[in-house]
Specification:
Elements (H helix, E strand, L loop, with lengths): L16 E4 L18 E4 L2 E10 L5 H14 L3 E7 L7 H8 L6 E4 L1 H5 L22 E2 L5 E16 H8 L11 H13 L12 H7 L11 H10 L8 H13 L16 H10 L4 E5 L3 H8 L3 E4 L15 E11 L5 H16 L1 H10 L16 H11 L3 E2 L8 H16 L5 H13 L1
Parallel strand pairs: 3-4, 10-11
Antiparallel strand pairs: 1-4, 2-3, 5-10, 6-7, 7-8, 7-9, 7-10
Helix pairs in contact: 1-12, 4-5, 6-14, 9-10, 11-12, 14-15
């Protein structure tokens, strides 16, 4: 789950789930009376209690079981495992902190970990698991501050059955490496009987901190483009990559192909998934989190295409999908040294122990960020991202390089004005530049 997205059909927000798990083994294992995690004396042996939070509410039950399994293997540690409400990954940490409790191990999205909560985490650079991943979260000082818990990605999700019927056989999604080839595919789909090949949803989070940040990947390190924006040295209106993504957006939302072209702005998340899931449309812009919604309608035949930025097949951006860590675990510097060490054991358990590896991939259906994890997710969108990562077909998850909440609430409405034809692209460029100058 990422940022502020509403990603489930028929799923209402639920209240924060709280699970207090007793440790295996003899003796009384409880936190201090005020509920703050701490250490107690258990028959002469040091008993450590840690409080860990999960920002992915949809895996609350799996998170609870993982805590139980970890405690079974580590009887000296008691875990209080708490999950946020679905759609609100930050609330549980804030709620617990405001009540005076110290969260030992907190789950944040990377943007929040580097901005709102930048003073929370300890330096994890010396941990052995760093050698097993390329997705660790670094702060401005180059320190590892985040354990990559969930790898996700986004691009053009497509209905394989519908597309392969239109193309007459096996379809290579990475063959769509120019904008013209994408439009040609749309025409093939129409010729096969699909009136509107695209169900283009335009919720703020989708068009802003997801779609509209992709231009940052024109540099090997997207933060270099962010730095140029902050310096005021990047002319967006004259930038080919920035314009290229909006040229492609114009194609996706255009009258000949988009189901919602007559009224492009609306709450179309559910309808877009139903349309693509049933095969009434074939393509939508979204991420691997969309699979549950699609699966509820039609099954498992879905994949990812890159979002082409221009008509140069040699442009590396045209052959890649965005992928990276969307949730990271941070160890709180306010926790005691004993609690921090217990939290480090939990992270090592996730990486090196079979039960931890199984929890991440098989139980939670999360793409592991660690090379030593032998398991693969079974849902096809997650599998497609995993395969793309293995084949070097991914670029950084651009949302991680902006303040996602602000892009959603401040820049998102401006992008929507552009989509609705109420503002020019040049005005949108000036607005984004002004946002960074402030």
């Amino acid at each position: 789950m990422m940022n502020t997205k509403n990603r489930k059909i028929g799923l209402a927000l639920v209240t924060a789930l709280t699970v207090l798990l007793a440790a295996c083994g003899g003796g009384s294992n409880s936190a201090s009376e005020n509920g703050t995690s701490g250490s107690t004396d258990n028959g002469g042996a040091k008993q450590v209690t840690i409080l860990i939070t999960n920002g992915k509410g949809e895996i609350a039950a799996q998170w609870e079981q993982a805590a139980k399994d970890f405690m079974a293997a580590n009887p000296g540690i008691t875990v209080e495992a708490r999950s946020s409400a679905v759609g609100d990954p930050l609330n549980v940490f804030d709620m617990l902190t405001a009540s005076g409790k110290t969260v030992t191990l907190a789950m944040f999205d990377p943007s929040a970990a580097l901005n709102k909560y930048k003073d929370v985490g300890i330096d994890l650079s010396g941990e052995t698991w760093v050698e097993e991943t390329d997705s660790e979260l670094l702060n401005e000082q180059g320190q590892v501050v985040g354990f990559p818990f969930a790898i996700e990605g986004f691009g053009l999700v497509y209905n394989k059955t519908v597309v392969e019927k239109a193309t007459g056989g096996a379809f290579d999604p990475f063959s769509i490496n120019t904008r013209d080839k994408l439009e040609e595919l749309f025409k093939q789909l129409q010729a096969s009987g699909v009136q509107y090949p695209v169900a283009y949803q335009t919720e703020s989070w989708s068009v802003s901190n997801h779609y509209s940040t992709q231009f940052l990947n024109q540099a090997e390190d997207p933060s270099a483009i962010v730095a140029q924006l902050k310096e005021g040295s990047l002319d967006l209106a004259g930038n080919e990559t920035w314009n290229g993504y909006y040229d492609t957006m114009d194609l996706l939302k255009s009258a000949p192909y988009n189901k919602y072209h007559e009224r492009p702005l609306g709450t179309y998340y559910d309808d877009a998934h139903v349309s693509v899931g049933k095969g009434e449309s074939a393509v939508l812009f979204n991420g691997n989190w969309a699979f549950d919604s699609l699966q509820a309608v039609a099954g498992s035949d879905f994949g990812f295409m890159p979002v082409p930025v221009d008509n140069n097949p040699e442009n590396p951006l045209n052959g890649k999908i965005s992928a990276g860590p969307t949730q990271v675990l941070v160890i709180n510097k306010k926790a005691t040294p004993e609690e921090q060490e217990a939290a480090k054991k939990f992270l090592n358990w996730l990486v090196y122990e079979e039960a931890g590896q199984d929890f991440i991939v098989n139980k939670a259906q999360i793409i592991s960020a660690f090379k030593n994890n032998p398991h693969k997710v079974t849902n096809p969108l997650g599998a497609a991202i995993g395969e793309a990562i293995q084949n070097g077909r991914t670029m950084p998850f651009s949302t991680n390089y902006v303040v996602a909440e602000e892009w959603n609430t401040i820049i998102g409405p401006e992008v929507q004005k552009y989509i609705a034809g109420k503002q020019s692209r040049e005005d949108l460029a000036k607005f984004i530049e002004g946002y960074y100058k402030k």
